Write the structure tokens for this entry.
Amino acid sequence: MTLGAVDIASYLPVLLLMTMAILFAIGNLAGSQLIGPRRTGAVKEGTYESGMNPVGNARKRFNIRFYLIAMVFLVFDIEIIFLYPWAVTFPNLDHQYADGAVWLGRILFFMLTTIVAYIYGYRKGVFKFD
Amino acid sequence: MIEKLSTLWPEITLLIAATLSMILGVSPSLAIRRLCAPIAAAALVIAGLLAYGDDPRAATVPNLALPHLAQYGKVITAAIGLLLLLLCVGLPDRDYEAKLARGGVFDALRNTRGEFYAFFLFSLTGLMLCAGADDLIWLFLALELVSLPTYIMVAISTSRNRSMEAAVKYFFLGALGAATFLYGFALIYGATGTTYLPKIAEIFQAQYAAGGLSGIAVAGLVLSVIGVCFKIAAVPMHFYTADVYQGAHASVTAFLAFVPKTAGFFALMLLLATVGWASGEATTSGLPQPLHTILWIIAVLTMTAGNVLAVLQNSVKRIFAYSSIAHSGYMLVGLIAGPVVGDGSLQSSGLAAVLFYLVAYGVTNVGVFAVLASLEKRKAGAAAETTDEVDSISDFRGLCSTSPLLGWTLVISCVGLLGLPPLLGFFSKMPLLTSGIRAGEYGLVVVLVINSAIAAYYYLRIASTALLESPDLASSSTVRPVGIPTRPIAGLAAAACVVALSLYTITDFARFGAKYDLPHKQVIPAPSAPSAKEAPAKSPSAPSAPAAQPQANVPGATTTN
Amino acid sequence: MNSLSHMLPMLTSLDLSSTLAQGPLPAAMSTITLYHYLFTSAALFCIGLIGFLTRRNLIIMFLCTEMMFQAAGIALIAFSRFHLNHTGETFVIFILTVAAAEAALALALVVLLFRRKESLDASVWTELKG
């Protein structure tokens, strides 16, 4: 149950690095507090938006279309999970058996189901942005 | 794997039809959108014929303890699916199509017709897959495929807030149930190192031989059973039932009362078949002690809670929801009693009794909900006519005189659910009782009989309201049929089945479906040692149940008369 | 990887304290047993269950059920490593898929509900009672 076999001493560099990082941060904050100039203004107090002027409230509601886009993304996202194991297994098939076509057929059928979902989404108007 | 695909033609048919109706359903042309229901019906017929016509030897799942369950399950799914389809036609998009007819613009996003039929078929596909499952992964996916579409069907069945609320309740408790049996499956995999059910059975038998199941295996089985209890609406997971059944449209409620429940019982059978009903540590019936105890408690609580709560209700849909819980409890008795090795007669095999009961309950249930779906209540006083579903018992006053067909369908279905002798309910409940007695479960049988007596109160209350009381003309709201002809037809067909099936019972088919082979060459108690040698050879009549043998050739109905 | 004969006794009697490191693993991991993983997964499952029963926000409740799903996933992966086969890992891929489908469904339902009542509190919905 214990993790006793691990050599704690080997983690010393990590500890050293963490200490240095914390000290560096504290030192910088303290330094700017002590010697930095203090000027304030409306622009400086505002939210940093990569140069854009911030508009409205952070709790803005998003258009429901983003939900549909998220769902379409989810379909492809999940499809990839199945493609990886297949792709890893495919080259390792035994060449003596003619399984290759069957394996290819399976994944093509699987992709076909995604295409059907895509057609459905298209007909449903998921990809229309207006 | 390719060989396995050849046993899946019914499911593939349904899947193709589902995708077709999903895509056709978003078409702007009404004629094309109308194709959805005929496509679904055709697919169900084809799937049923494919499943029925399958050579049993080819369709058999090899090595599985219940080799014929797949074929039986697929056929009854297709048959009752057709009845349910008849009931559901006209439900999706009725309001929306009416709006279009008044000159609205078609918007594919607002249209739910295609989805409804697609999800209907997906769910039935899941049920078929569930019957043929031979792997835990498969079983998990099949159970989810049954459930996920039903959540949406509940949500889109009406546009009322109630349906939304019902769908959310159903979904969240469903996810809880799914997570529970999933964890159970994970533990079963941990205990055995495989998800292939026959292999699991083999390893469990080896564990018996070595002195009992491992703790992890028992924990896994118990968690799985509790999780699946959600699907069959049994006690620890029954809270959603009344709310969901009331919130959904009556046609969808009929669907909910049959499809997930049947899937749950198939899953329970497959799971329990891995440990077997003839374990070395035999209690009265052969399930291992902890499982037997838990199922026993669940069965008793489910029967009692269902019936007692149903008595307290005034809403008809809630009454049938609670009675659905109670019926699950009855069926658990058959599940605890277990099968007889080989084909087993209906009278002594609990599994055959459960399989038959599922059909009987499904059919009768369609009858009840078809009546509910065919009627609507109109408030006369309001300026714009508002319609509501019939829900209170008083809405059925004198239904037999106002609309005799619906009234008599309701009466026949109620009496059928109650289980009075000339109707189907009796012939399906008898085998449960006899199988319980055969297995020595006298306590359960007594509870079952007492509960049937309690159930008589509310079933007869509904039936007598429709049959004996006079219609309430003074009321502010009037009850009248909805103008959808398929719903009364579904009801009539169901009522006809209730009567016809009790004359010509399908008990032989149920017996066929419940064929139970001992999982692998397992350790058998000394007295029946000869049968252990024959079991691997799959002899059609294993001689371990000599008492049941004379009855085996006689259809169940005639012996009980 | 070990031979089959090594595996077989483990299948029949599951020894929880035996180490997971049956293959080549770093020495530091050699003391983490199956027990640790099972404890983690059981804890996750229980946290999810308790959260589900006590919280009333629909999104949090949904996250709790997802947590229970992932608890099963952790158990499956650990068992998969323990039994030295890939069945458990395959199972997990399917669980991820189902979880994604459930997420899509749950979000759709939650959006529907929010549109009707402008609240995600489960106790706002009390129309069905009896």
